[in-house]
Sequence to fold (415 residues):
Amino acid sequence: MRDQLDIAFRQSYATAHWKLVQLDTIQRVVIYQFNLGKEIFKGQIKGFDPSIIDVGTLSALLFWKTNTRYNATTIDEGTRNELKSRGIDLTYHQIFFTDTVADLRLNLQKIPRNQFQGLLGTLNQENRTILIGDIQSQWVNSFKRAEKFFFHWQRQSISIQKLECEVEVPVIYKTSIGLQNKIELYRNQNIYFIMGATGSLNLRASQSALLQAKYEAKNHNALIQSQTIQHRLVGIGVIQKPKTWKGLILQLDLAFLRGFKNTIDTEGEIKKPIIKSDINIMIEKNWKRFFSSITFHQRGIYLQNEIANIEKIRLGGVETVRGFGQESIFCRNYAGNQLETGWNYSPAGRFFIFYDQAWIQQDTAPLEYWQGLGMGGVFQVPDGQIEVSSGWGIPQGAKFDLRNNLIHIQYQVYF
Fold:
């Protein structure tokens, strides 16, 4: 049987081939041997090098069993999705177990995972309703190295537009090190113009976790005042990609940076220290037909008595406080959460209701309490999904008003 399977593999598009040669369950020592294989034709998988799969992924695929029949272990859906998110499609697998060796052979295919996402909304401004937009696109694995390219355009109002371009290289020369860099342009007609870059050097600590060395370099230009505010910071970050355990999903993204703020105007130059924080934690629980989730956000700028509007944190919209325009709220610090619960109608989609809260600090004033509530749905369509949500924003000191409604329509397609 094994010889027949080997012949079948040699006639296929080819595989990666690993052997688990040692497992100590007490000391938790696992040793894998990557076999380029002469007896099994490795082949050329559209320029893909199978060694990109790290030990963490292998640990999820292979485990020790004795006297287990061929193919008794299946590849779980979570692992398949993790591979697909990195541009790898697992089309076929074989697992052999003996008393001394666990042998895994995968038929892998490099796949594109491109996305296009559009968000449209309405906003009441200057006694009229205008159309605002948020367009994002992503290209994955265009050069067969699991790289990602992002493009983001946003229009918040008649006068404000934003453009972002980002590139991510998750693996450099078959190591666990990757790079990420983003360029941002933000303009409000003739009032201000922001230009800058952020990025990180990433180290894969596990299959789903990254450790980051981060930097930020931005120039905030106030055109009317002839003033430039420079931010130059470095710091650390931690990313935990969605991890599932007994129906509970955990995801987090933490970053802390320290550096200096340099203010340049006609009177001279002032240099001061500055600290920034950016925390996002999401927890979701899924049952057969219901789900509930909570997402915590915190962002802040510290060690500064005075902060100009052009350097403030921007929030509002689908990722922070729904019921308000995308990034339409400017503040020094804020902390908040998004509560969401609903019903799963798999595979058609799901319906949800939400309640968002944010405690916002404007300059040195006391905290303000802002809220957003509403409902929405996610509907699966061929090669993508559509999300529609309707929310009411309630600023500090205001009452609920049915007329103060904001509708978001978001379309995401894979190609």
